[in-house]
Structures are given as structure tokens and as C-alpha cells.
Design goal:
The chain has 538 residues and is of the alpha+beta class. The protein has 16 helices and 14 strands.
Length: 538
């Protein structure tokens, strides 16, 4: 058995060595047939591989081949601007000395292609990657370079309305799965030469394009360098969604709080770039990442800045209240009914005691049963087909709650508490923070069930201490509360008018001034207002 194993290992090593000798060269071959055979061997029997061979008639006949992936390219561009251009009888008259393969190659590059972007490639790995990206490769017989023309296309989802961050007033477009489309949506909103982006390939198998975007002279260079370093340190097989990147570059992976903001709206990305933050767009997903992140970002919505400031401030304040209810609602009910009945008015206490009469479980077990049942219904409603998912979740919650009350398993007041908590959880605009509130809710329920409000306050102290220790690319998570920056509170709990917020956050932006003073509405001596240029200083 040992001899068989040793012979197998020798044969395996010999085979691998011969394969490396045959196909390990990093440069293209000057022979057209050898290059085409190597492409076929590496890509196997791919049904979408197209090899179009034809003859280019210059001073002498020349063999040329166009190679592209049918599912990744725009066939109209390939046909109209590459193949038809090369075979057109109206090509410019070739100069003398075009007989050599090098001369023919340069002639094709300079005169025979109508496609917008082309580049000459000499090494095999780059050519292979460009081919699998959706570009068309032109090979000329007798020359060891190829021409890569940008013909990327294929089936892709069109720009549509956002599905997770819906607004009543504001832009309706959202990111798609195409990184080029997403960069264009952001560039359309930021028309400045300082807008910069860097592209990097991550994933040894997927070779996913990841784009880092920022505005020069606004974003801090140390933060830009830190993001660049963290992205380049990623060494993995596959990146299929921005969530992969998020887990690789986040500061504290043990924290339940999200320290990287994600969005599918290009207007939110543009607004954060103008504030001095950095956006990361991953090919193949409509969700972009924004860093650095502070907790107040998860309570803001794009519509806050499109409505009047008083309406936006009221709605934002409601979100903070909803977060507190979603976090402490069931815990407060458990603490009051189990340890602190004296805090309740006597009529309310009598009603609560009467409603819980006959319930065989303590308040803690009762709350856990209802919360877990509701979480299962919510998950089932998300995973079921869209046509029936919403109906099943709503009808299931009503039927389950009514049946539980009739059977005496839970009290009616518990159904009300769980329902209010669920509605408050839905009011949080960020799905990541909403999930965090759902997880922490169970911990506070346990603390209230064992120690009452003392346990809730102890858990709150530990929670605030943990949040205070969090950083996102060196920026304090509770900023501008910790450290205290009162000048930045104009866009924290509430939103003051745009003309009062004259500076960017100094912990993320290098250039903090957004506008000069005197941008508010002008007040005349008679008390009437207009939009004059001599505004009142805020």
C-alpha cells in the first residue's frame, strides 16, 4: 500500500510539473493557434465562450481572432464597434511597413477600432481577467500582445426604486448590482474634480471589483490610508456581497452594534462623501458601505433633509423614542409586574392583576414566549413568497395572540406590550440597528426578570460603557456626545435648518467649513422675509 501511495504521489507531482511547464508562462504566445488553444483549455467547455476568427486584409493577409464571453459582453458593441470596424472596407489606407505583425498590431490599435476604451496587454493573467470581466480580446497572429476592448454588458438589473430605504419625498433611484452603474449614480451628484475613487480586485476566485470613493481635500488622509490598508489586507477566495467586506474591516467584531453603515441609496452616499466620509462599493451588490460611522447615522433618513427642518426634527426624535421602547419595553413591564408593583397606580395594578389571573407562567417566561413567537412569525413572513408572506405574518400574529389569550397562556396586556415593541422596532430606519435592538431586548428582559429595575439600570450602564468604547476607523461611536462637541449637535437629536449647519464633523473631515455665515433668510425692517443675500447670522 505504501508503494502505491508513493507512486501516486510521484505521478501527481510529475503531472503537475508538466502542467506548469505547458501553461505556466505568464506571457502571451506569438502564435495565434497556441493562444486560442490555451484559452480553450483554461476555460474548459464554457458554452458562452465565443471565438471569432477572420482575416484582416492589409498589405498582406493577416489572421486575427476576437475572443469574448457571450454572457458578460454587450453583443451590439462587439458586432458594431469591433468586428464590423475591422472588416469594414473603408479603413484608412495602411502605411508602408505594415507587413510585420507588430505594425499590423499598432495599426489595429490606432485606426481599426471604434470602441471607446482599449488597452494593450502582454501578460496572460491580465488578459484572462479582462476576458472574464466582460471585455473583448483581440489576438493578432505573429505578435505576443493582445488588445482588450471595453465591451462589458450582459444581463443586469435596471436602476429602480429603493426597497429597504423608502422615502416619500426625494430621489427614487437606488444602486444596482453593477459597480459601473453605481459609480455613475454617485458621480452624477458630485460634479467636482476632487471626487476620487480607487479600484481593487479582492478574492482569488471571484476577483470582485471593490471601489473606494472619497472627496479629496475633504476626507482626512489618515482615514483614507486606513481604509485602503484594510481593503488590501483582505486575502480570501470569494467576495460575493458587501457584508463580506464589512466583516473583514470592522473594528470590533464582538460588538452587536454595527460600526459600518450600509445603504442602497446614492443620495445618502453622496451626502456622506460631502461630509468627509468614505464609501465602498462592491460589484455584485446594491448595498454600499460608508465609513467612519457614528451611532446617530442609524437614526437619520434621507427624507429628514428633504422635508422642512421642524418636521424632520420631530420624526427623528420619534425614532429615538421608538428605539428606547424597542429596547426596554418588555423589560420595563417585567420589572413593574414582578418587583415594583408599588410604582403602579392602584387601579392599573388591579387591572393588570386581573388580566394575569389564571396565567400559569411568570412575566419573564410569558414575555419570552410571545417575543420568540413573534420573531419566528417575522422571519417566516420575510422568507415566504412575497404574495403570501405579509398576509401570513399579519394573520398569524393576530390568530396566535388571540388563541394564546383565550387559552390562558399569556395575558392580554402582554400581547399589547409585544405589539407596541414590534411596531417601535419597525420605526428604526436602519435594519442593522433594528436587529441589534431585537437581540439586546432579550438580555434586558433577563436582567429585569432577576433583578427588576436594578438589573435594567446595571445593564444600561454596561451598554453605555460598551458603546463608549467602540470606534469606527478611529472615530468615537457616540460622537458628538462623547467627546462632547456642542457645535455639532445641530444635526444630532434634531435637525436645524441647513443654513445653520455651517461646518462638517471635524473627526472625519479635513476641511470643515461648508458655507460662510449669513446664508439664512433675510428679514426686512418691516418683519417680512425674502430670500435676499444679506441673511441673519445664526
Amino acid at each position: 500500500m505504501r508503494k502505491i501511495t508513493e507512486r501516486y504521489e510521484r505521478n501527481k507531482k510529475r503531472t503537475s510539473d508538466s502542467d506548469r511547464t505547458a501553461s505556466g508562462s505568464s506571457r502571451l504566445d506569438a502564435d495565434l493557434n497556441a493562444n486560442l488553444e490555451r484559452i480553450k483549455n483554461e476555460l474548459g467547455t464554457s458554452p458562452d465562450l465565443v471565438i471569432r476568427r477572420f482575416k484582416l486584409r492589409l498589405k498582406k493577409e493577416l489572421q486575427v481572432a476576437a475572443v469574448y464571453m457571450d454572457t458578460l459582453t454587450d453583443k451590439n458593441i462587439v458586432n458594431d464597434f469591433i468586428i464590423r470596424s475591422l472588416m469594414s472596407p473603408s479603413l484608412p489606407e495602411p502605411p508602408d511597413g505594415i507587413e510585420s505583425p507588430e505594425g499590423a498590431f499598432r495599426y489595429v490599435c490606432d485606426n481599426a477600432l471604434a470602441v471607446g476604451q482599449i488597452e494593450a496587454v502582454a501578460d496572460w493573467p491580465t488578459m484572462s481577467l479582462e476576458l472574464l470581466t466582460g471585455k473583448t480580446v483581440l489576438l493578432v497572429d505573429g505578435w505576443d500582445e493582445c488588445i482588450c476592448g471595453n465591451t462589458m454588458g450582459g444581463e443586469r438589473r435596471a436602476v429602480s426604486e429603493a426597497s429597504t430605504q423608502i422615502v416619500i419625498r426625494g430621489p427614487k433611484d437606488s444602486f444596482s448590482e453593477s459597480v459601473a452603474t453605481n459609480v455613475g449614480l454617485v458621480r452624477r451628484r458630485i460634479r467636482t474634480p476632487d471626487f476620487a475613487f480607487e479600484s481593487i480586485k479582492i478574492g482569488s476566485i471571484t476577483q470582485t471589483t471593490v471601489v473606494m470613493m472619497y472627496i479629496k481635500n475633504i476626507a482626512k488622509p489618515p482615514i483614507i490610508d486606513e481604509v485602503r490598508i484594510r481593503l488590501r489586507k483582505i486575502d480570501t477566495d470569494a467576495i460575493l456581497e458587501s457584508g463580506y467586506i464589512e466583516e473583514f474591516i470592522e473594528d470590533n467584531w464582538l460588538s452587536p452594534f454595527p460600526t459600518i453603515y450600509n445603504t442602497e441609496r446614492p443620495d445618502i452616499v453622496a451626502a456622506n462623501l460631502i461630509e468627509g466620509r468614505i464609501a465602498i462599493i462592491v460589484d455584485g451588490t446594491p448595498f454600499a458601505l460608508v465609513v467612519p460611522t457614528v451611532m446617530s447615522q442609524f437614526f437619520t433618513a434621507a427624507e429628514d433633509y428633504y422635508q422642512r427642518y421642524d418636521i424632520g426634527s420631530f420624526i427623528r426624535f420619534l425614532r429615538y423614542v421608538a428605539f428606547v421602547i424597542a429596547l426596554f419595553g418588555p423589560a420595563a413591564y417585567i420589572a413593574l409586574t414582578t418587583f415594583h408593583q408599588e410604582m403602579l397606580p392602584t387601579p392599573l395594578l388591579i387591572n393588570l392583576s386581573g388580566s394575569r389571573e389564571g396565567v400559569p407562567f411568570p412575566a419573564l417566561v410569558e414575555a419570552f414566549l410571545m417575543e420568540i413567537s413573534f420573531e419566528i412569525l417575522r422571519e417566516a413572513g420575510i422568507r415566504m413568497p412575497r404574495a403570501v408572506g405579509q398576509a401570513v405574518s399579519i394573520v398569524g400574529a393576530l390568530v396566535l395572540g388571540e388563541a394564546a389569550v383565550q387559552a390562558g397562556i399569556v395575558s392580554p396586556i402582554m400581547v399589547i406590550v409585544v405589539s407596541i415593541t414590534a411596531i417601535a422596532n419597525f420605526s428604526i430606519p436602519s435594519y442593522n440597528l433594528a436587529i441589534t435592538a431585537r437581540l439586546l431586548r432579550f438580555l434586558f428582559m433577563l436582567a429585569a426578570g432577576f433583578l427588576g429595575f436594578y438589573g435594567v439600570m446595571l445593564g444600561l450602564i454596561m451598554l453605555v460603557a460598551h458603546m463608549n468604547s467602540l470606534r469606527s476607523f478611529g472615530v468615537a461611536y457616540l460622537s458628538p456626545l462623547v467627546p462632547v462637541r456642542p457645535e455639532q449637535w445641530k444635526d444630532f437629536f434634531i435637525r436645524l435648518p441647513h443654513w445653520t449647519v455651517r461646518s462638517r464633523p471635524d473627526n472625519v473631515a479635513e476641511r470643515t467649513e461648508k458655507m460662510p455665515s449669513g446664508q439664512g433668510p433675510h428679514i426686512d425692517s418691516d418683519g417680512s422675509g425674502n430670500a435676499g443675500s444679506g441673511g441673519v447670522k445664526p
